Amino acid sequence: MGDSKLILCCFIACILFLGVNGENPYRYITWKVTYGDIYPLGVKQQGILINGQFPGPHIDAVTNDNLIISVYNYLNEPFLISWNGVQQRRNSWQDGVSGTNCPIRPGKNFTYVLQVKDQIGSFYYFPSLLFHKAAGGYGAIRIWSRPKIPVPFPSPAGDFTVLAGDWYKRNHYVLRRLLDSGHNLPFPDGLLINGRGWNGYTFTVDPGRTYRFRVSNVGLTTSINFRIQGHKLKLIEVEGSHTLQNTYTSFDIHLGQSCSFLVTADQIPQDYYVVASTRFTRRVLTTTAVLHYSNSKRGVSGPVPGAPTIQIAPSVMQARSIRWNLTASGPRPNPQGSYHYGLITPSRTIMLSNSAPYINGKQRYAVNGVSYVPADTPLKIADYFKIPGVFNLGSIPNWPPSGNNAYFQTSVMAANFREYVEIVFQNWEDTVQSWHIDGYSFFVVGMNGGQWTPASRSSYNLRDTVARCTTQVYPRSWTAIYMALDNVGMWNIRSENWARQYLGQQFYLRVYSPANSWRDELPIPKNALLCGRARGRHTRPF
User: What is the top-level taxon of the source organism (predicted)?
Assistant: First the structure.
């Protein structure tokens, strides 16, 4: 009788699994993660390579594809990969951050099983532990629309990835020791485009044709401005949302953000600068790549085109100009605008305020006065096994406390499945903040200077603001978002400034459903790594 019940359970499980994933293609990827010598700024460094490459190989997928990614860790340190912008629907088990996954130990491997469910757009992956991101290990994720879903622009002649961001000549473990000792990072040494320094990378185009450029800021500490000498940038997509196709001469991209432009090769055939420079820094770093016309007989020439540097107002105006294309299809055939986010009244308001306290004489960063410290067991696994003492719900307040006191805590905020929340990011510091939320896309309904109050809602865009997963907050300003909590799991909310994230400016949002149903959340993976207080336990039989 027991065997027959087990067989029946396995059969039901297979039916449920196939119902979710069976009709969608599987893509199998194997990665070997190693150290290797790299010279991005002309100085030998220890880089993190994936299959011998820096940056790592692209991931190309179509909406709803299943990705089976086997990661072999040949480093001498634990390692994890996370997927910036991939929502992991019902599946925070695969998110690849310290609060959801045990690390892959040196010499071991782990296979991620994830689905790019109901998503399109431009994203990237990165190493999430031990400040490894400062050594590389990142790469592009491109999620294409299904063939029968209309796209609001003609098929481009080519599709280019631009992974840009600031870089340090010091090895990642030196930077990590600096942070661990209670100091902040120095100013970066330079900028990279696709792992290369000045004029180190070339994009070749044919005259008269139009190309898609997918640009991500994969840096550690600074916003960037992107531009192409003599060419217009037509914005078409931001982190999975089709946008109104506004045209820009240059565009600000904040830490962790991704976007797509159409660029037409409509100038005199020659070579042109592709430029990234730092924003909101007194000392401006610049790097270039080359846009090469296939029939060009002349190299790059003239001064590198300029752009705003420390000015905030142009960036705010530009950010407000990014609008949702209401009539375009997203990952599904129905128009994006058929979801009327502004007609839903939030059931809860959360305010998150960043700060830079010193605790025990060392530099830390905090959210609502709480500086996050990782637990000895991933929070998601501890929650599943009901292991006491790993974290406490409510260990971070949902509103900034009065006073300047800050303290250490493994901070987890409680939330309920299907809540509709308003989150206000309040920034009283003099630097631009960049916030990312795993597992979700949210609507950036407003941003302005000063203190947010309920009266600030009168300025919200409740019709056609863009949906994205990373948003900036300008100095001494606020940014407000609306977000439907439709994805059960344990989700990281963090600063995309990697030093701030490392030193505590992050926490986890536990979105909970009492149903305990696979309709709401997939079960723990059979191959889930178990560590800390979960070591010696078992996942599930099938």
Answer: Eukaryota
